[in-house]
Amino acid sequence: MSDFLLELLSEEIPARMQAGARADLEKLFRRELEAAAIAARLREFRAQPARFGPRYLSGAEPLPDGRLRLPGAMAIQDAATALATEWETDATTVGGMVIEALGHLPTLGERISIGEYDFEVERLADRVVESVILVRLPTPRDEDEP
């Protein structure tokens, strides 16, 4: 059982597959609990990406000039929720999404627009995007306002 839980906590599932995986996992847990004759009442089954280490626990950081810093290791689902947006991507992290959108490993300061935001690569370590700076792109509605 401990091996299963370690594997489960280590698994990264693409964002668009998480809802189905969550439902499948709930069914498995309920079936196993019933088979073991364990009386459990699951009102709500929660599953979310697990990350280990301090760099995975930090979130968005507003900057004095209105921009926003995101850790590259931040889960896509967490970033999208924080920004009230959605991105179509197979990546599981913000840094992975930037690499996927660029189609290559980025260089420091490289920029790309994804959805409603402009992403600038702020810090790199080896082949990992450690942080990005976001600026919300103006929408046509924003440009019409005085």
Describe the protein's architecture and organization.
- The protein folds into two domains: 1-50, no CATH class; 54-141, Uridine Diphospho-n-acetylenolpyruvylglucosamine Reductase, domain 3, CATH 3.30.465.10.
- Helix content is 36%, strand content 19%.
- The protein contains six helices and five strands, in the order H-H-H-E-E-H-H-E-E-E-H.
- It has helices at residues 2-10, 18-35, 54-57, 76-83, 94-102, 140-144, and strands spanning 61-62, 68-71, 111-114, 117-125, 128-136.
- It has a five-stranded antiparallel β-sheet with strand order 1-2-5-4-3, covered by helices on one side.
- A hairpin with a 2-residue loop joins strand 3 and strand 4.
- It is elongated.
